[in-house]
Design goal:
325 residues; alpha/beta; Hypothetical protein af1432; 2 domains; binds fe (ii) ion
């Protein structure tokens, strides 16, 4: 388990495989992870365990006597929909993997023989996904904040970013006359806006230079990843809009949808201003935070990125009230 999980309840991860040698190898691999691991030789037995115990992640073999892994994961989905499901296939069989994803909505698949680092990372990601889903389902702002802090731990230069973005976005929403419940949605969406970064590898997030196109493509997926979980958790549409559209740009050159102008939901345009302002005024590995005046000049020059009318209100009414630490 990574240090980002320190202080949290240990995740329970179950491995299901009929081969004793496989379970022994998995036991050795996961013994120092800090996860509470269950090793189960039979899918039928595994389903009984799921009825009695909260299981965060299940890693299952496919070819097992009595029940295939695909059937097992599909049953598991109806019994415990939040449990994150990973299929392990004995062969690089794309058909089995696709069926696992279609029939049981498996999170990912991995082929045997597995690569140890790949499997450890995959389980870490699955645990993070479960944590994200249950935090979002809680409808508890404290848990949203704790989730955001977990994501920030992956990139120390963003510490406090989500709380500050939520604060700036809420102030701007109030300044333009937004009312409840939208104000709360904007605050919650802003706290959660980067939660999809939980799926971005730390070495990409922390890379102290210009990212390659491929790395940037990975980063660009974080609004979609966060949105998938937020939708599954049934969060209000305005919260989802902030998570999904906070990197859209007024001129249509943003991502993931390339929306333009007013077709970008208001809540996302508000959060984008707060996000950019905090990014510019915070220290990052590649440059020191800009002083307030310099930061506002930079924002003025970001032609086509931010909503100009909202930015004018932000400068006039919000900036004078905030202190940059
Ligand atoms: Fe983001």
């Amino acid at each position: 388990m990574s240090d980002t999980d320190a202080g949290k309840i240990a995740a329970t991860v179950m491995f299901v495989d009929d081969e004793a040698a496989v379970l022994s190898a998995l036991r050795r691999l996961f013994q120092e992870t800090g996860y509470n691991c269950i090793f189960c030789p039979s899918p039928v037995e595994a389903l009984e365990i799921v009825l009695k115990k909260k299981i965060w992640v299940v890693v299952s073999d496919n070819q097992m006597p009595g029940m295939t892994g695909i059937d097992f994961l599909s049953k598991l989905r109806s019994l415990s929909p939040d449990t994150v499901r990973i299929m392990m296939t004995a062969y690089a069989n794309l058909g089995v993997a696709i069926s696992a994803i279609n029939c049981s909505e498996a999170f990912r698949f991995i082929t045997k023989p597995w690569d140890n680092d790949e499997l450890l990372t995959l389980v870490d990601e699955a645990v993070a996904r479960y944590d994200m889903l249950t935090s979002m389902r809680s409808r508890d702002e404290l848990l949203y904040r704790s989730l955001a802090h977990t994501v920030e731990l992956k990139d120390p230069y963003t510490r406090g970013h989500c709380d500050r973005v939520a604060d700036y976005a809420e102030r701007l929403a109030v300044a333009i006359g937004v009312e409840e419940p939208l104000i709360t949605c904007i605050r919650h969406g802003s706290i959660l806006h980067d939660c999809g970064k939980i799926g971005v590898p730390e070495e990409v997030l922390n890379f102290p230079g210009k990212l390659t196109l491929e790395e940037f493509e990975i980063i660009k997926q974080h609004p979609d990843w966060g949105t998938q979980v937020a939708r599954e958790a049934g969060l209000p549409e305005a919260v989802v809009n902030v998570i999904l559209y906070h990197h859209e740009r007024i001129d249509g050159s943003g991502y993931p949808a390339g929306l333009e102008g007013a077709s970008i939901p208001l809540e996302a345009r508000i959060a984008a201003i707060a996000d950019v302002f905090d990014a510019i005024t915070s220290d990052r590995p590649y440059r020191k935070g800009n002083e307030l005046e310099g930061a506002l000049l930079i924002m003025d020059k970001l032609d086509g990125v931010l909503d100009k009318d909202l930015l004018a209100i932000f400068k006039a009414k919000v900036v004078p009230e905030i202190t940059i630490g």
